[in-house]
Each structure stands twice: as structure tokens, then as C-alpha cells.
Amino acid sequence: MKSYNIAIFGCGIVGSGVARILLEMNKELSQRARHTIQLKRIVELRPKTASGKNNIPLDLFCGGGKDLTAEEAGKYIDEIIHSDDIDLIVETIGGSNDFIYDTAVRICDAGKHLVTANKALLALRGKGIFEAARKNKVSIGFEAAVCAAIPVIKTIKESFTGDSIISVSGILNGTSNYILSMMQNEKLEFKEALKLAQEGGYAEADPTLDINGYDASHKLILLAKLAFGIDITLEQLSPIGVENIKREDIDFAEEINCKIKLVCYAKRENGKIYAAVKPMMVKNDNFLSSVNGATNAVRLINKYSGRHILVGSGAGSLETASSIVADIVFIARYAEKMKYHIEQTNYDFIDAKHFVFPYLIVFKTVDIPGITGLVTTSIGNQHINIDTVSHNRHIKEYAVFSIATTPCTLKQIDDAIAEIKKNRPDVLLGEPKVMPILY
Ligand code: HSE
């Protein structure tokens, strides 16, 4: 069998998992790839730590196991990119800065296949990288970038090519789902649940991208590109994370038989696309409501084949690494034939303000006679039909209550809130929280 040579750039949590699987399963992987898979070289600043984690021989590391300076690592990266002896490079350095972007483009320009788990890089700067791959007839494997080993990229790219995807919705960030689950099940406040997520190793030391919705948005951007052929920007999504969810919001969700989830949602409707990443009220009979802890799930609704759900662990060293290795095997075996090209389409976006959902609006107001009537009158004035009004909760000097609407637009809700503010600037204590209800 012909040899198929791999290099890894960045041997941290994920990269060292890739090295371990390539070494431990070498025989099976080579049979599956119809090539002798060989891990040839690894570039890593701190080889001893990487080697210790997964028992990787130090002689695979450039520099023979010595710590490298950034400059030395850069030189090895250059050398490998231009080496005739390497067929495919795994990028597990992470980040989306110019160095990483240039490295990805240079790998493709040098005629080498690229496999990466780097969602931020592909979601924010993928255009130039995919273009370089297309121009140089090389493949980019990125199954690991969305929900680790859950085969959602392959499902969309290959299994559903005989159908038309109508919507993609999912829980794509395990950390925020863990936090919401703990708030829900253990009756914790956000800060307590975040602390548990950090202690349990679910959240990063800096969990910003997990809790502000950006990590989930990077994944939705990639799924929407594959499902609909569109490029969505972070600005278009304007994600809302879970950091402002309060215990009382969860209690209001329970009253209408819902769980609050950070939902990634993209839907094709009348030739236009709606896309959002925000906390939503998910009805208890929607499968996504029962996805707890750090688990990820993706729900796809297709024109002909209906509803499909993929569930599994969306993070972790070996989970992500196994997905990278699967891409390596697939590319080694089929690269000559696949030359996958993502078809671009030009959909218009539906302005979030005009997309119709049923909504839950949580109001925090001064506690005075007639307050519920005052709020519901303004809602009625905007022709919004109210489904349910929750029990008011009286907490010291203020009240909180929620109103579930039948389907309407955000614009109608904004106008109702503007009317309340205009008529009684003194009653609202903070901006009402508005969350779509997902059936
Ligand atoms: N930090 C992510 C999560 C995994 O919590 O799901 C990597 O994207």
C-alpha cells in the first residue's frame, strides 16, 4: 500500500488525541484508508506536556522533543508545508488570527489536504480558505469543527443530497447547555451553575465564547453554509447568549411546559433565510428540550424525508480527535474523487424583526394596581393575541410576570413595549426579555 503521510500543527488537548488514535489504530486506519497512514511530524511548542498526555514518542516532534520558540515552530511549519513528503496537515492550533489563516491558506496552496476542528477560523474567515482549497484541488475536512464526533457535516454534505433541507436547529454548545440544565434541574442561579461547569471541566477558564453565544454561532454559520450555501456573518446573527438568564425565567418556562435552551436556528422560508442564535423556550415535546448537560443535538427537517435528530457529545479531546481521524481516513481514501465544492446561493435574509414566532415576554415592573392590565392593553393594541399570562410574582417592591403570545413578529412586540414606555415611563424596571417559543 502507498504511504499517506500526516503532520500535526499544534498538539494540545485535541492534537494529542489525534496523534494517539493515529498511532493506536494504525493498522485498522490504514486498511480503511487503503493507504499506510503514517504520522510523520508534529509541531508543538511544549512537546513533553503533549507527549505525556497521550504517550506520544518524542521523536515525532520537530526539534526531537525540545521546547520550541514561536519562531522555531514557524520555521518547522514552513518546512512541512513545502515538504514533498507530507500529504495532509492537521491544524489543531486554534484561533482565527492572521497567522492561523495564512497557515491554512498556505497548506492548500502547497497542494496539501487540510483537516481542522477550528470552527472560528472557518466560520469567520473560511471564504479565502475554501477558495484556496478549490483552486488547488485539495480537500478540507472539518467534521470536528461542529459538535465533535456527531456526524452532522457528513450527514448534510452526503446523506441528504437527495433532499432539500428546510431547517436546522440545535443545541450546539455543551457548556451553556450544562449551565441551563443545572439551573433547571438543581434550581441554581446562573453564576453558581457556571462555577460548577468550570469545576467539572465543561467550561473553559475563560468561558466568554460559550456563554455569549459566539461558539454556537460559529457552528451554525458552518451548518448554514453547508445546508443552504449561504455565508452568514456574526453581525447578521447578532447572537444572544445565556448570561442574562435568571432562575425566574426558567420558572416561567416551566409554567408553559418549556425548557430554556440556547438554540441555533436556521430556516428557509419562501426563498429567504432566517437565522438566529438565542435562548428559546423549547416545548417539552420537542426533542431538544430533553437534551441535558454537555450533550449536543441537531435537528434537521427536510422537504421529503422529514425530521432527523443527531445527538452526542459535542466536545472533548478524543471525541473531537476521532472525528479528525475519520476525516483523514476519508480524504486518504477518496480525495481524488471527492473534490467537494460548496455551492453558493444568494438568499435574502429575513429581518429578525419580521420573522413570526410565538414568544414569551418576561416583564419586571413596579408592583402597582392595574400593571398587568396596562401591559396587556399595549400588547393587544399591536394586534398580538395573548396565549397565557403567568402568575405575577411579587418580590419586595417589584413584580415579575410573563406573557406567552400566539405567533407574531418581534416588531409588534417592540412596538407594544415602546407604547408602554411612552404611556408610563415609570413602570418597566429594565428591558423585558423576549424569547421565541419553539415547538
Ligand atoms: N466549548 C464548546 C462547548 C466545545 O462547550 O460545546 C467546543 O466548541
Principal-axes geometry comes out as elongated
Q: Determine the structural class based on helices, strands and strand pairing.
A: alpha/beta
- Strand proportion, as a percent range, falls in 15-25%
* Major pleated sheet: 11 strands, mixed
Would you identify the CATH architecture of the largest domain?
Answer: 3-Layer(aba) Sandwich
Count of helix runs: 16
Overall helicity: 40-55%
Number of strands: 16
Low-confidence stretches: none
Gap from first CA to last CA: 52 Å
User: Mind telling me the CATH superfamily name of the largest domain?
Assistant: NAD(P)-binding Rossmann-like Domain
Bound molecules: L-homoserine
Rg (C-alpha, Å): 24 Å
Mean of pLDDT: 95
The CATH top-level class label of the largest domain: Alpha Beta
Q: How many domains make up the 3D coordinates?
A: 3
CATH topology category name of the largest domain: Rossmann fold
Oligomer state equals single chain
In a nutshell, what does this entry contain?
Helix content is 41%, strand content 23%.
Describe this entry's structure for a reader.
With 439 residues, the chain is an alpha/beta fold. It has three domains: 3-148 and 318-337, 3-Layer(aba) Sandwich (Rossmann fold), CATH 3.40.50.720; 152-313, Dihydrodipicolinate Reductase, domain 2 (2-Layer Sandwich), CATH 3.30.360.10; 353-438, Alpha-Beta Plaits, CATH 3.30.70.260. It is 41% helix and 23% strand. The chain has helices at residues 13-24, 26-33, 47-54, 70-81, 98-109, 119-136, 152-159, 174-185, 190-199, 208-211, 214-228, 234-237, 247-255, 317-338, 371-381, 410-423; strands at residues 3-9, 36-43, 88-91, 113-116, 140-141, 165-171, 258-269, 272-283, 295-302, 306-313, 348-349, 359-366, 386-389, 393-395, 398-405, 433-438. Strands 6, 7, 8, 9, 10, 11, 12, 13, 14, 15 and 16 form an eleven-stranded mixed sheet that branches. Helix 1 (13-24) crosses helix 14 (317-338), helix 6 (119-136) packs parallel to helix 11 and helix 8 crosses helix 9 (190-199). The mean pLDDT is 95. The protein binds L-homoserine.
